[in-house]
């Protein structure tokens, strides 16, 4: 497959979307709150894409994804404060370092726990996610700057449409090329039948660790973007329920589908925040009644997700793999 030609198609589609969003942002038709929600949707897509690599393409059931999301956020915020990053030139290395910290931790954690499978792996990653939440609650004992249970304050708001959209599009393109490379094909072989993949000479342990590390890296970059979008971090932002959010996006969009993750990420954030706008303040908690009903209806209509193992032509790929 000629990746150069298909990359051009994807980049042209992304450029068109960026122009539309820029016009809407510049025109004043969207409030500051709505603009922030749109940026949050891109961050959710990026972070969920990391989980899709781990779960959707390699079949590793992780429930601790929010922990790596939080590691990326806190690492980027701490390094930015330590080196007094206040402008765009210093932001991009900080974003990468946030992702690298999450990826490194994912590698170190993955070496022992990826020997587990199915429910055992889910429990192990769930325990790790809870551990990260506890560590963040007590992080002020390591450095007062981290804030502990009070939260990390004073983070400059440096993220805008160009940065969020550009980083997300770039990493979607990298992920798309990686998934449809030899390594990505091996990941999908492991998901379908790990024993058979090993018999045919595929290094299943090494490739599972590679997928897990890369998925954690994407979560870390998403967390770093989140830190510089909202300017405040609290351990409760990275608890178990946040991991469920990312898992819902992957499952609703369709496991093993980049396009599905993009659509479901936009839909999930729109529903969550849209109900916050529509419902009166005294009925706000009712959205946690409406949302499960909506999820049940979607699963009854599309039990394998909206686009299970399918991709849109805008990624340069069409049809079922």
Q: What does this entry show, briefly?
A:
The mean pLDDT is 87. The protein is built from 12 helices and 2 strands; from the N terminus they run H-H-H-H-H-H-H-H-H-H-H-H-E-E.
Instruction: Give the strand order, joined by hyphens, for the main sheet.
Output: 1-2
Largest sheet: 2 strands, antiparallel
C-alpha termini separation? 14 Å
Low-confidence stretches: none
Helix content: over 70%
What is the H/E order?
Answer: HHHHHHHHHHHHEE
CATH architecture: Orthogonal Bundle
Number of DSSP E strands: 2
Question: How would you describe what is shown here?
Answer:
It is a single chain. The protein has a single domain (about 5-320), classed as ABC transporter involved in vitamin B12 uptake, BtuC, CATH 1.10.3470. About 70% of the residues lie in helices and about 0% in strands. By secondary structure, the protein is mostly helical. The longest helix is centred in the C-terminal third of the chain and has 27 residues, at about 205-230. The protein has twelve helices and two strands.
Helices and strands in order, then pairings?
Layout (H helix, E strand, L loop, with lengths): L2 H25 L4 H26 L7 H18 L8 H23 L4 H20 L23 H19 L2 H11 L1 H6 L4 H27 L9 H14 L4 H21 L8 H15 L8 E2 L7 E2 L1
Antiparallel strand pairs: 1-2
Helix pairs in contact: 1-6, 2-6, 2-9, 2-10, 2-11, 3-4, 3-5, 3-9, 4-9, 7-9, 10-11
List keywords for this structure.
two-stranded antiparallel ribbon; 12 helices; ABC transporter involved in vitamin B12 uptake, BtuC; 321 residues; mainly alpha
């Amino acid at each position: 497959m000629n990746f150069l030609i298909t990359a051009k198609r994807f980049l042209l589609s992304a450029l068109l979307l960026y122009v539309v969003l820029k016009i809407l942002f510049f025109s004043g038709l969207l409030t500051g709150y709505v603009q922030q929600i749109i940026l949050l949707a891109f961050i959710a897509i990026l972070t969920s894409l990391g989980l899709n690599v781990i779960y959707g393409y390699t079949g590793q059931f992780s429930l601790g994804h929010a922990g790596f999301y939080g590691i990326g956020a806190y690492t980027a915020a701490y390094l930015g404060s330590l080196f007094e990053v206040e402008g765009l030139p210093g932001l991009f290395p900080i974003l990468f370092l946030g992702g690298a910290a999450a990826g490194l931790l994912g590698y170190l954690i993955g070496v022992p726990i990826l020997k587990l499978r199915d429910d055992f792996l889910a429990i192990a990653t769930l325990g790790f996610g809870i551990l990260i939440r506890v560590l963040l609650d007590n992080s002020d004992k390591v450095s007062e700057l981290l804030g502990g249970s009070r939260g990390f304050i004073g983070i400059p708001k440096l993220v805008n449409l160009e940065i969020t959209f550009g980083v997300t599009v770039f990493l979607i393109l990298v992920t798309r090329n990686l998934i449809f490379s030899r390594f990505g094909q091996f990941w999908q072989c492991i998901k379908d039948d790990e024993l058979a993949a090993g018999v045919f000479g595929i290094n299943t342990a090494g490739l599972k660790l590679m997928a897990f590390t890369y998925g954690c890296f994407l979560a870390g970059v998403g967390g770093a973007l989140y830190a510089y979008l909202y300017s405040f971090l609290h351990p409760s932002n990275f608890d178990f329920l946040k991991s469920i959010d990312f898992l819902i996006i992957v499952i609703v969009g369709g496991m093993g589908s980049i396009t599905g993750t993009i659509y479901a990420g936009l839909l999930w954030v729109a529903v969550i925040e849209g109900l916050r706008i529509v419902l009166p303040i005294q009925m706000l908690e009712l959205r946690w009644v409406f949302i499960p009903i909506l999820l049940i209806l979607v699963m009854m209509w599309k039990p394998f997700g909206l686009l299970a193992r399918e991709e849109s032509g805008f990624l340069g790929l069409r049809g079922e793999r």
